[in-house]
Structure formats: C-alpha cells, structure tokens
Amino acid sequence: MIRIVDPANFQIKREVDNGTEEQRRIVRRILGQVKEEGDRALFRLTERFDGAKLDSLEVKPQEIDQALEQVDDGFVQALREAAERIRRYHEKQKRTSWMETAEDGTILGQLVLPLEKVGVYVPGGRAAYPSSVLMNVIPARVAGVKEIVMVTPPREDGTVYAPTLVAAKIAGVKKIYKVGGAQAIAALAYGTESVPAVDKIVGPGNIFVALAKQAVYGLVDIDSIAGPSEIVVIADETANPAFVAADLLSQAEHDPMASAVLITPSPKLASRVAEELDRQCKRLERKEIAEASLRNHGAICITKDLPEAFEVANQLAPEHLELLVQEPWNWLANVKHAGAVFLGPYSPEPVGDYFAGPNHVLPTNGTARFFSPLNVDHFMKKTSVISYSREALFRDAEKVMALADAEGLGAHAASVKIRLEQKEEGEELG
User: Fold this and answer.
1) Does 90 participate in catalysis according to the annotation?
2) pLDDT for 10-25, tens place per residue?
C-alpha cells in the first residue's frame, strides 16, 4: 500500500490546484454578480448552490442558543478549554508599538496596529471543522481586531452546523452570515447590504473559495491558499511502530491528496510500520481516503542515518513534522523547515490540531521554507513613524539630496533644498 523509497531521488508529489478555466470563469461571474447585485445575488446563489431558500442571511442569537442545546456538554467543555489554551499561546505573540529618541531630537518608531475588519470563512458539510473557527478567530481577537465577520454555508434547511455556531460563540464572533463558496468571498471583499466589507479574509475552503480569494487579493489581504495536509515522521529504532502508523494515518484520512511520509534509518522499523499501516487502515471509517493517500502520496524513506533523515525532511519542508526518536530535544536544532514540530511519543499531531494551543493553520506544499503558521502578526499592520529635528535634517540634507539626484527625482531633492535655502536666509522653518 505504501512505497519504500531511496532518499537520493525522493520528493513528495506536490499538486497545486489552480482550477480549470471553467472554474475560474464561474468564479469571475459570481464575483461580478455579488459586486453588482449585493444581497440579491447572495440569496439567489445560496439557493442555487446550497439548496437553501433564506429569509435572512444573518444568523440570529436564538439559532446559536439552539445550537448549544444540540451539542454534547463534553464537547462544549473541550472546546472552551481548547479556546483558552489557544488564547494564552497567542497572547505571547503580541507586539507593541515603539519609539526611539536620538540626542539630536529625531524620533523614529513603529505603530503596531490591529486590522479593523477581518472575515473568517468556515466550510460547511463534511469539511466543517469547529476547531478551525477557534484557530482563525482567536488570534484576530488577541491582535485587537474590532470587527470579525464569519461566513459559512447553510444546509438545505437553512440551518448552520451546530458545532460551528458553538465554536463561533466561544471564540467571540458577533456577526455570522449564512453564505458560502465564492459568493461569500465576494461579499467579504466588496460588501453587500448585509455583509460588511473587510480588510482581510482567512479560512480554508474548496477550489471555488480558493480561486475567489486569489481573485480579490489586493483589494483585501488573504491568509494563504492552502494545499493538501502533510505529515513527515522522523523515527529511529526506538519508535513504537503502532504509534508511527497511527500518526501517518491521522493525516492520510484527510484527503486522497494528503501526504504521509516516514523517514527512518531503521529498515526493521520501516517494515513493521508498513505492516501496521495495513492493519490499522482496515479499521478506519475513512479507509478509502487513507488508502488513496498512502498509495499515491505516501512513502517510507530509508536513510543511512538520522542526520540524513533530517536533511530529507528539510528538503520536504512539511506542514507537520514529528520526531519519534530517542532524545528528540537533542535533534530539534536540525530542523530548518517545518510548519509545526511535535517532539516525542506522547505529542501526536492531533494534540496540535485541537488542544495544545499553537495554531493548526500551517504552511503546506513546502512553503514552510518561507511561510509561518497563522499568528497574531497576520492580523496586525505596522506603520513607520519619522520625526526629524531641524538639526538632523540639516546634518543629513546633502546625503538625502545626493541619493535623490542619483535616482533622477529632482522634486525629492528640492523638498530638502528649500529648507536649506531658508536656513541660509536666516528664516525660521514653519
């Protein structure tokens, strides 16, 4: 079911889905309709694509109360505790504005300010993940975003998946709208009579959501275009093969395009993990998905030693990286590229997905080489502050003008020169 590969020529088959021309055409048409018609287009498209004929787009408070009655108390408690852990973790990321004054009176600094409005897209149906509500909303709230708008597709009866609404309430979302797909992205980007326009859109979605986010980028900011889930496990002969197999399957069950890779210097462990994968996969509800993932995108890579295993992992730059080796902390410095690192046999990837506190929105498709997990900084912007004193300007004027003249920007130089001329005439600067 899973292939054994040599490290010399191994790489994950990365598939970036840019959609078909027909899909892109559909998205362009939907964006145009929402931009021109506003709510009228949203009602029509929601009925067409989701089968729901709505009287109102906004989720009412009583619907959230009803959702709370539909879910298990244990689920609510787990969600509340997860939210608190996520909040505490992200609080440590928050930055503050700063100013620095020089002896000549120059003040330089940076304003660190939250975005004003953020839109969070939450998928519906089988792809509904309440944990993603927490992971996308809580960092924005920690950053100080004033207005968070959540959109999610309704079911045919006009209701929203109850756990999603409960997660939104726990995360502190005040505005929730029953709209999904490319039309939801359009509403957040352009604004309609009901849905306010935002400054940034975050959250996963299908190909139509991804293409719509790409299309509106520039008018608004977006988080990223996420690829299929990935996990790499580096394990030595001390690893429990049942643990390794279970962790690989935890990602393989996501999607047939997900990748699950074991890198090990132990041929014996490789063989035992392959056996465990066959045995454990048969018991999964999502057996067909996991099998397709392992068959098409999974691998066991046998290296000559652990240092080579880390070299291979760094080339892959995986979304999730588990270190199931003896003394894992001694090897952490060997990790150069990974979205999240899980150390030791009792840190399986799902604890990061749901409960530990770090964000589970991670770079995929090898982009951990230059992207970071979703964090508080993604919901903040920086503004430079410059206040030159008279003394500092006269000191630096010739150098500023020389640089401006070298670039052929005479007006730049002139805006400095006019102040020098006033100085020479003995006039006070205004």
Assistant:
1) no
2) 876 666 667 889 999 9
